[in-house]
Structures are given as C-alpha cells and as structure tokens.
Amino acid sequence: xxxxxxxxxxxxxxxxxxxxxxxxxxxxxxxxxxxxxxxxxxxxxxxxxxxxxxxxxxxxxxxxxxxxxxxxxxxxxxxxxxxxxxxxxxxxxxxxxxxxxxxxxxxxxxxxxxxxxxxxxxxxxxxxxxxxxxxxxxxxxxxxxxxxxxxxxxxxxxxxxxxxxxxxxxxxxxxxxxxxxxxxxxxxxxxxxxxxxxxxxxxxxxxxxxxxxxxxxxxxxxxxxxxxxxxxxxxxxxxxxxxxxxxxxxxxxxxxxxxxxxxxxxxxxxxxxxxxxxxxxxxxxxxxxxxxxxxxxxxxxxxxxxxxxxxxxxxxxxxxxxxxxxxxxxxxxxxxxxxxxxxxxxxxxxxxxxxxxxxxxxxxxxxxxxxxxxxxxxxxxxxxxxx
Length: 387
Fold this sequence. Notes:
Elements (H helix, E strand, L loop, with lengths): L1 H23 L10 E8 L6 H20 L7 E8 L4 H14 L3 E5 L2 H14 L3 E3 L13 E3 L4 H14 L5 E7 L3 H16 L3 E8 L8 H10 L3 E4 L3 H13 L5 E4 L14 H4 L3 E4 L8 H13 L7 H20 L7 H11 L5 E3 L2 E6 L5 E2 L3 E6 L2 E4 L1
Parallel strand pairs: 1-2, 1-3, 4-5, 6-7, 6-8, 8-9, 9-10
Antiparallel strand pairs: 10-14, 11-12, 12-13, 14-15
Helix pairs in contact: 2-11, 3-4, 5-6, 11-12
C-alpha cells in the first residue's frame, strides 16, 4: 500500500513537471515553442490599407530574418497583427484580442487616432509599445510608449523648413483634415514655422471625415488665392482626390506632403501623370544606395511580389530591429510578464542606438521620441526619387 502511495505521488509530480514543460516550452533551437510575442494593429482593409499592409509585411520580414539568425536572447519572435481599419474602437478590440493571444510587447498601431485609443488601454496594463508610424503627440502618451517615425509637430516644422530653405515656393496654401489628430498636429506647427521662415500662407482650407467626397470648393479657394504650392498634411487617398480635383479645375501648383502621402503610388487605377512632381517629407527613400536600404528593398520585393516598400514598411522594419536591440540590452526572457518586459525595455530605450533604413544613429529620449534626420523625396517617372 505504501509503495502504491509513493508511486502515486511520483506520478503526480511527473505530471506537474510535464505540465510546466508544456506551458513554458524551451528556447530557440530546442524542441519547445516558447516565444516572445509581439502584437500590433492597423488598417489591413479600407482606405488606409497600404499603410497597414506595409507595416505587417515589413514587420514579418524582420521577424523572419531575426528568427533565422537565431532569435533574440535564444528565443524566437512571434508576430501577429489585427485589422483596426484606422478606427479607435476597433483598435481597442484588437488590443484585447492580442492580449488574449498572449501579447508581451507591441508595435502599437499604424495610424494616430487608433494608436491613441490602443495606447490608452496599453498604458493601464504597462504594455511596452514602439509604434512605427503613429505620429500624433498623444499616440505615445505614457512612459511605456515610443515611436520610430517623426511626431506631427516635428513633421510640420521640418516641412516648412525644407520648403523655405530650398526655395520651393513662397505662397503656400494648406488643405488639412480638421477631424484628424495626425493632420491637425502637423498643420498647426507648419503654420507657425512657415510664418517664422517668411512663407506666405495665402489660404487655409479644411475638411472632415464626413466631408471628404468633394474637394472642389477647397481647390477653387486655393486657385483664387494664387498659391504656388499646396501643403497636404493628410493621408494619400484624400490627397489623390484633391490632386485630381485640382487637375479638373485647371490648378497649376506644386504639392508637398508628409509621410501620410506615402502609399499614393499604390492606389488602384492610379493616373501616375497626376502625381508626377509631388514631394513629401519622409525618412526613407527606396532608391537609396546604402547597403541597409538595398538589402531591405531587395528582400521585401523578393518576398512580396516585387512590391516596393513604402515609408511605413521601412519604419516597421526598423521598429522590429529596435525591439531586438532593446530586448538584448535588457536581457529579456520569454517567461517574463508583459509588465516586467515593459519596465525593462523603457529603462534601456534611451541607452540604445540603431542604424536602420530610416536613419543611422537613431536614438530615443525618455519621452519616446526618436532623433534622426528627415529626408525629402519627389515622385518622378512613377517612383520616389530622393531630393
């Protein structure tokens, strides 16, 4: 009887050990499947899908490269992205879905309004976020959140500086989305900096999410004001509609935008002649000849049907490699909680430097903002050309 009790206890202990082994897995290269899980959401359908698909594709490409090279701290990375259609409510739903999946850290969301909502719940959980492209100041509200892209204020200031210092134009009109945090954030700083640099703002025109089907009134106002350039701190679908409307109205101006314009070349049935000469501020030019960019663009095209990566893809690629650098610096383990991982990563982010495709020597301060040099590109012959 005593022997039976001993055997029973040993059997129970063996089952407990097996249970923990099955739940915990092992490091990369072993027989288990323990991973560090990175979650994200973005517009994979709808008007802004070019942004979301670029982020999803590039993030997965980086994860696959890292895993093939042995992973991070001996662990594999696993990436999952949910569709939020750039909507705040759907971004919160995506966060909860990813949390149930076991997300331990995140790329946040792709667009600003969605990221503000996503970050609102992530901050409460002390979940680490490094968004590739959500540029509104409020997108990284909290010490748990960082970004790879420029913030909206920085984009507005840099755009005005570029236009003024390169004598692109003197008389500038602005068309912006007054219902969108991304657009208004850039617009406000651009106006202040443009005036400080001696640019003349001849007219300021706005629209909202509920009134973006007809831009004829805004275009006519720009024409009447005698603008030489139209600044468009908006997303590519609305920008293309404005440019198309301008062509119909006989408007002859230059167009200058920010990272939201990136993606315009992938619009279905695009008339490339309409966007020839459009300029935008961006940290990435696909035709750059440095080794990092050539590698990224080549691998992206090989993996995704010869598609050229946009700036959102480039920022996402850098975001994953930045996470790798931070995980290694903090010596993060896969069995750590999301909150413990967040505490470890936010402590080391100001200590790391990353050479990426969107900049070399990229650093972060405690506010979550990156430091890197902006670039400008122009659409020529159906592609982006560095200026």
